[in-house]
Amino acid sequence: MPQAAPGRLQHLLQSQVPLRDFTTWRVGGPAEWFAEPADLAELQALCAWARAEGLVQRSLGAGSNLLIADQGLPGLTLCLRRLQGSQLDGSSGLVQAQAGEPLPSLARKAARGGLGGLEWAVGIPGTVGGAVVMNAGAQGGCIADCLETVQLLDPQQPYQLLELDARELAFAYRHSRLQVEDWIVVAARFRLQSGLDPAAVSARTSANLHGRTSTQPYQQPSCGSVFRNPEPHKAGQLIEALGLKGRQIGGAQVSPLHANFIVNVGDATATDILSLIALVQDQVLHGHGLALQPEVKRLGF
Ligand SMILES: Cc1cc2nc3c(=O)[nH]c(=O)nc-3n(C[C@H](O)[C@H](O)[C@H](O)COP(=O)(O)OP(=O)(O)OC[C@H]3O[C@@H](n4cnc5c(N)ncnc54)[C@H](O)[C@@H]3O)c2cc1C
Predict the structure, then answer these.
(1) Please, what CATH class does the domain formed by 235-299 belong to?
(2) Is the pTM of this model over 0.85?
(3) Smallest Cα–Cα separation from 226: which of 138, 295, 142, 276?
């Protein structure tokens, strides 16, 4: 068992915190230790404490692409959504954003400043950190298109900040090198297209949001698209063609509105969701001869 946290961390650390409250699927057991640092100094002190105690560390943004096990997570779980803030330079197009900045607000701020390149991001309910890790994207755009550098913290050496060029991060479709490293994204710098008409960028941004809310189950707990699209196919169309819309296991249901979404219609457990994912994969393999790969990240399994 870890020692009691030092005095200056006691007000930050909580134990046995239900992680369902920190994921958009509303699923997940308790974190052994949990904290939401409000600034870099708090984050560094928490990482140093966990390292000294030999605890496993994990980072969450908005929890909008995560399936967390019902038995919860050992060690320290850090939620970074309080690390908010951004600076946008209307003339150069440079944007510096903290890891916890919500992606929709960054897209709106960019639009109001006449900066183009994040119009697609307005409907993605994640943070900048999670979006960089996932190389989030929609409507033909993705994070890697406008990312310049990422500021990172290595939990093993928490007092040394690293800055990596986007070209060093092996971005691909919903993939980055950050998915296989233990680093924590602290901030990111983007270069957007400057000098555009704010009204026109805002109109494109709003149109993107409207297009999504009318075709996806935004009002129900989900993690967005569960499966990666097996190009050139769309996972949702493959699933829908097999008549799987509405299929339910426990509280987990293939959305009747969009077949690549699994929604929590009651008290879904992670086990319900995993069982439904396996059922869909099995049917798509037999029905279409294609192996669907989950886009959602699993923690604690
Ligand atoms: C309704 C809905 C619609 C969606 N639509 C889209 C879409 O169109 N396109 C798309 O790409 N995604 C979509 N998503 C999925 C999700 O919003 C994105 O993947 C988003 O980028 C995840 O960000 P997050 O902050 O929630 O990350 P989390 O879900 O909290 O974490 C995702 C991964 O990143 C890691 N991580 C998070 N923050 C950090 C950090 N600061 N440092 C290190 N690691 C970190 C986590 O450990 C985890 O492995 C949708 C989700 C929902 C619920």
Answers:
(1) alpha beta
(2) yes
(3) 295
**CA 129 / ligand 1 centre spacing (Å):** 8
pLDDT digits (tens, 9 = 90+) for 128-164: 999 999 999 999 999 999 999 999 999 999 999 999 9
Does 204 participate in catalysis according to the annotation?
no
Structural tokens at position 149: 């550098």
Tens of pLDDT along 202-232? Answer: 999 999 999 888 889 999 999 999 999 999 9
Q: How many helices (H) and strands (E) does the chain have?
A: 7, 16
Q: Ligand 1 centroid vs 130 CA: distance in angstroms?
A: 4
| Ligand 1 mutation target, pool 65, 81, 210, most atoms within 8 A of CB | 65
Specify whether 295 is catalytic: yes
Which residues make up the CATH 3.30.465.10 domain(s) of the chain?
A: 86-213
CATH of domain 8-79: 3.30.43.10
CA of 284 to the centre of ligand 1 (A): 25
Rounded Cα distance, 46 and 43, in Å: 5
Every domain of the chain with CATH number 3.90.78.10 lies at 235-299
Q: Which atom of ligand 1 is nearest to the CA of 127?
A: 25
Name the segment(s) of the chain with CATH classification 3.30.43.10. 8-79
| Active-site annotation holder among 20, 58, 81, 174 | 174
Rounded distance between C-alpha atoms, residue 11 and residue 72, angstroms? 22
At the topology level of CATH, where does 86-213 sit? 3.30.465
Q: What is the pLDDT of residues 238-294, one digit of tens each?
A: 999 999 999 999 999 999 999 999 999 999 999 999 999 999 999 999 999 999 999
